[in-house]
Amino acid sequence: MKGAQAWRLGSMGDMQILPGSRHRPPLKRPIWIISLVSLVCLFLVCAYIYPPQGSAACYVFSSRGCKVLTNWLPPSPTRELSDEEIASQVVIRDILSNPPVQSKNPKIAFMFLTPSSLPFEKLWDMFFRGHEGKFSVYVHASKGKPVHVSRYFLNRDIRSDEVVWGKISMVDAEKRLLAHALQDTDNQHFVLLSESCVPLHNFDYIYNYLMHANMSFVDCFLDPGPHGNGRYSEHMLPEVEKKDFRKGAQWFSMRRQHALIVMADSLYYSRFRDYCKLANFPLSSFPKVILKSSLPTLPGFDGKNCIADEHYLPTFFNMIDPGGIANWSVTHVDWSERKWHPKSYKAQDVTEDLLNNITSIDLSIHVTSEAKSERLVQPCLWNGIKRPCYLFARKFYPETVDKLMTLLNF
């Protein structure tokens, strides 16, 4: 009995020295895990609301950049399109998706936007000679009935209207020319030219360059300065956002499909007609540098000078078919003097070296209107191949016609 009792006591003694079981609170969690999860959630929410603005910030997290983060996040809510926007997008999409009407005799439409007579008709006559059936000519004379000296220009005047520099009437004239040229189904490419434009190459070179191009040559670039996005008006919202606003020279060369969508557009055109306006005072009163504070305030004007022909087509194509345009014009113009008008060439300026220099340029250069004047340089790619940029050039004084005919000698 004593042995048994001793055994039990010994056992109890052993039990007394064993540690008792711990009782943890049922809701307690490691604080560091909760903190980490909270930080990750906060980061994702901030990244969704304020996405990274530069690529460097994206690559901190992944070598694949912002795309990784974007794929993790839900898509941003998009606004509901108006009936007019839906109708416009449907028409534009169908025109671009359908192949153009094939022509057995494809032609280039040469569309001249001029105040009256064309001082270089003799040069153009030499250029066109022997290529009948491959081109059409259309003349929009806004001030006086032109007197023609070339048979290719006879009876080629269209109904014209007044054109004021910098105003929507310039775009109206361009669309009027396109409308007349589109009536001929053989016209497959459409070139807008001024009275001071001259061809730089022979007809065959220009014909092959344009007819076999897989794009339209519409000038388009982003200018964040006062004479670029500084001209944007928020009255254009919601259809035209500031991020889509672009600038470019008006002298285009475009394929038939693009000419058709320009004619089909009324929505975006109306925004530029109503809110891209030039101050209503003489151009001669413009100082070299216009101060925003000195401009009058007009309804929907926002105290800005907006030149419609420099912004409508670049913005329109940037929004609806950015990959379908080259972003440069095939018409050369020299803005190096940084004035309101480009450099004009007199007879003494026209030399073989000048023409060779222009025709050898294979880089498109845009200069922004910011104080630092950033140069935007891109190669002129024709169907993916680097080639010289320019087929035409301006502005030449009428006195240069004979010298140009001698030097060009088509």
UniProtKB/TrEMBL annotation:
Keywords: Glycoprotein, Glycosyltransferase, Membrane, Transferase, Transmembrane, Transmembrane helix. The chain crosses the membrane at residues 31-50. GO terms for molecular function: glycosyltransferase activity. It is found in: Membrane. GO terms for cellular component: membrane. It is a single-pass type II membrane protein. The keyword Mitochondrion does not apply. The keyword Glycoprotein applies. InterPro entries: BC10-like, Glyco_trans_14. This is Advillin. It comes from Gossypium arboreum (Tree cotton).
